[in-house]
Design a protein that fits this description.
By secondary structure, this protein is of the alpha+beta class. 40% of the residues lie in helices and 28% in strands. Helix 1 (3-12) packs across helix 4, helix 3 crosses helix 4 (41-54) and helix 5 packs across helix 6 (145-156).
């Protein structure tokens, strides 16, 4: 495998670096050092420059959504009337100590990924999350509900195109 191909593979294995390359905010020599590939630092930096030049520009779009906050959510193994269910674990409004943020409309995996990134950056711990059809759900601690609502609404106003 060529150094250029190895560099592209290494970047694709680190989505944050791929996003930074698309946004044009990478110090190529620092990124080359970080990747620690078997090759000259300058050669890896040059491969990164060429790869970045071939990437489409980072674009975003507003997601046409409606976001609601549902308090009193609890974890259960009964998926009846669940707000979110994954495997054998479900979450439903039943007087619990969690809060669910429910977005309906133009949502998908790109929107979920962006929402989760934004919540993580704000230090909001996510208990569970999922997306399907035209719905997205994120479950957080009750005390984080209002902040998480603001973050989710803001994140959905500008969802990056990950293509």
């Amino acid at each position: 495998m060529s150094l250029a191909a190895e560099t592209r593979d290494a970047v694709r294995a680190r989505p944050f670096l791929l996003a930074a390359l698309r946004a044009g905010v990478v110090n190529y020599h620092a990124a080359a050092d970080f990747l620690d590939l078997d090759g000259e630092r300058d050669a890896v930096a040059a491969a990164l420059r060429r790869f970045a030049a071939d990437l489409p520009d980072r674009e975003s779009r507003p997601a046409s959504t409606r976001v609601e906050m549902q308090s009193g959510v609890t974890r259960t193994d009964d998926a009846t009337d669940a707000l979110l269910a994954v495997g054998g674990t479900a979450f439903r409004a039943d007087g619990g100590s969690l809060t669910a943020l429910l977005a309906t409309g133009d949502v998908g995996t790109d929107a979920l990924s962006h929402v989760l990134d934004r919540l993580a950056a704000a230090g909001v711990e996510v208990t569970a999350a999922g997306v399907g059809d035209d719905a997205l759900a994120v479950v957080v601690a009750r005390r984080d509900g209002p902040e998480a609502l603001r973050i989710v609404e803001d994140a959905l106003a500008s969802v990056p195109d990950r293509g």
